[in-house]
Amino acid sequence: MRVNFTVNGRQQEADDVWEGESLLYVLRERLGLPGSKNACEQGECGSCTVRLDGVPVCSCLVAAGQVEGRDVVTVEGLADFAKQRAEHGHGGACGTGGGCGSKGVSTDEAKRWAAKPGDSQTGEGVELSNIQQAFIDAGAVQCGFCTPGLLVQADELLERNSDPSDQDIREALSGNLCRCTGYEKILDAVRLAAARQGEAV
To answer: What is the DSSP string of 166-185?
Structure first.
């Protein structure tokens, strides 16, 4: 079958997709976006987390056919997605758009996001998003295998909750496993990103 969907603001088409093929496989093998990691293939580790119509999902559990006509954001598009969100004023911090209590970007809002011609599909050469920079500054990256999923999940958390408690952070990231860090630096990174987001408002 042929699947048409939007990935990181660009229309994509995947041909000859077989029935049981996962979104993760399509992203990595057909579209050349290796940021989402293939680890457990059972939805247990969170390394393959992407946003599907604004909602974090384990792409290993989503059949490719389910994304027909939908919007996907991977870690490669996270910085540009965050920039678009800031420019159009929806999500995270209580402000112009979604405001406090927002449940993130709506399907309609997500579909209006479109990459500009000069944007890189792979995320290279793009200014990092707040959460990406915070992970670097807080030393939250070691081997990096779990990092893409953690970044996508943390970005979604900060979009809907600009001032998360430690319990909020732990709960949001509970589906993402890391074997290297002991999680403390990851928590520090999310706290740092939240503080910087608050200063920017």
So the answer is: HHHHHHHTTT---SSS-SHH
* Distances, alpha carbon 127 to alpha carbons 39, 82, 99, 133, in Å: 28, 10, 25, 9
CA distance 195 to 193: 5
Within 10 angstroms of residue 184's Cβ, the number of other Cβ atoms is 11
Among 56-60, 116-120, 177-181, top mean pLDDT goes to 56-60
pLDDT in tens, 30-83: 999 999 999 999 999 999 999 999 999 999 999 999 999 999 999 999 999 998
Distances (CA, A) of 156 to 92, 104, 178: 8, 7, 18
Average pLDDT, the chain: 86
d(CA 151, CA 69): 25
Half-sphere exposure of 143 (CA within 13 A, CB side): 11
- Of 187, 185, 173, 192, the C-alpha closest to 143 is 185
Tokens of 132: 């990406």
